[in-house]
Amino acid sequence: MKALQIQGLKKTYGSGLQALRGIDLDVEEGDFFALLGPNGAGKSTTIGIITSLVRKTAGRISVFGHDLDSDIAAAKACIGIVPQEINFSQFETCMEIVLNQAGYYGIPRRLAEQRAEKYLDQLGLWDKRHTRSRTLSGGLKRRLMIARALVHEPRLLILDEPTAGVDVELRRSMWSFLSGLNLNGTTIVLTTHYLEEAENLCKNIAIINHGVIIENTSMKKLLGKLNTETLILDLNSKLEYPPEFTDCQTRLIDPYCLEVEIKKTAGLNTLFKEIEQLGIQVHSMRNKSNRLEELFMSLVDNKKQAVA
Amino acid sequence: MNFQKQCIAYQTMVVKEVGRFMRIWVQTLVPPAISMTLYFVIFGNLIGSRIGEMGGFTYMQYIAPGIIMMSIINNAYSNVVSSFFGAKFQKHIEEMLVSPIPNHLILAGYITGGVTRGLLVGLIVSIVALFFTELQVYSYTLMFGVVLFTSILFSLGGMINGIFAKKFDDISIIPTFILTPLTYLGGVFYSIDLLPEFWQKVSLFNPILYMVNAFRYGMLGVSDINVGYAFSMICLFTVALSVFCLFLLNRGTGIKQ
């Protein structure tokens, strides 16, 4: 079953800005889906329309088969949203915020309290349950928004840059929490600027730019399109200039650190042999981890050139 | 959303709205008690004693219903406008907009909050009035009917102001430049019989005149205008503003891009 189905979605703002130019997108039930794009590409507008915060100009959206126009209450009941900006009352406590949200979904008080305890505890906020939200740190505020979005146990969770401005430790604990949720059956749609995050978490991906989807495929297939791999070599001895290797591009990050971009078709044996021949002492080697970033940039750049 | 869930959602909104103004009671409940005490002391006691009777009652008795009604109007209005605009400003209105609550329930929740504060302040001011004069009731039904519909009407007014407001200035312009002058010129402190004929006719265009007089009739049994007509106007405006509010919410005016 499709968790989310978007057909011909268009949005033109009052200012005349055409934010979405006809988007078609399907997200399968159980998926962990990444929606990526540069700033102003249309990600937040798309999410805004799905969550009824933005009015669409044209198109259809259905959530688990419930049409957002004709069966809006059922569709909304399936969605949980973690927005990009903090949007809870600064004067309420964590517990009040989560319980109120449960109330808006018609969840009886006792059940709401049980769920609030469960999610506040899982997200490390139980000790802060009586704390006014304005006194929480940025990271805790983001976790509170996740707890609030989960209290009605939505089948589709939408996260709009949930880890923006969050430290590495907290980000990783959020990744682990979200992976667990997805394993338990919650479909997740994620937008993020941390492409490493999408690469680690998501099974499928769509890239949106200038209001159109320019790529919609599985993460595996997308990464398979990369025809180069980048290696970072830490050296024991200093290099004055980058050496030349067959089928490779090299760049000195500093005199003791060499970046080698090698074609996937070329074997590493040749590279190692040439390193040996030049007498370069390699202390350690690692993959550069921003593979998706490279691909993302090349897709967005290609589109820019096509538009130009 | 079935009926039971709608009841839970409505209850949640009401508890939140009432909790909001109760939490800041020093800002919401105390000031009207103090300012109305000053009205009773200055206009009712000091000046009123020199004015003598009005409509067959002491001046203090005559102005008491108007002062109570004025506090109900101001508080019902300001509760909804500040709460709704605050929710828009802090963006937590989105908590409701993303949920399955129908718009008529969102409206009902805010209006109930405004009516509750209006009635509570009305009760406080009535208690204050008892220290200065004797309050009598001519018709409980009319008195409560007028109070209820007037507080609903001005809560709706506050909601419309909150929907259109884009900055904090916008939520003080209407109370300062429209609501307060209309209230003061709405027969709170005088009978329009005291005015020249031209100004009596002009006063009839002031909707607050009808509310103050209908309420005064409920308490004292005297009014400058026909009470049946006044009550019908209040009900008519309440229905019209309810429909307009729902139209705005359904359209997403001021809350959806």
UniProtKB/TrEMBL annotation, chain A:
SMART domains: AAA (SM00382)
GO molecular function, one term: ATP hydrolysis activity
InterPro entries named in the record: AAA+_ATPase, ABC_transporter-like_ATP-bd, ABC_transporter_ATP-binding, P-loop_NTPase
Signal peptide: none
Name of one Pfam family that matches: ABC_tran
Chain ranges of the ABC transporter domain: 4-235
Alphabetized SUPFAM superfamilies for the sequence: P-loop containing nucleoside triphosphate hydrolases
Keywords from the UniProt entry: ATP-binding, Nucleotide-binding, Transport
Protein name, per record: ABC-2 type transport system ATP-binding protein
Species of provenance: Methylohalomonas lacus
UniProtKB/TrEMBL annotation, chain B:
Cellular component, GO, one term: ATP-binding cassette (ABC) transporter complex
Location of this chain's protein in the cell: Cell inner membrane; Membrane
Membrane topology: Multi-pass membrane protein
Keyword Transmembrane carried by entry: yes
GO molecular function: ABC-type transporter activity
TM segment ranges: 21-42, 62-85, 105-132, 138-164, 171-192, 227-249
Pfam family, one: ABC2_membrane
Domain ABC transmembrane type-2: 23-252
Entry keyword set: Cell membrane, Membrane, Transmembrane, Transmembrane helix, Transport
Major subcellular location class: membrane
Family in the record: Belongs to the ABC-2 integral membrane protein family.
Protein name, per record: Transport permease protein
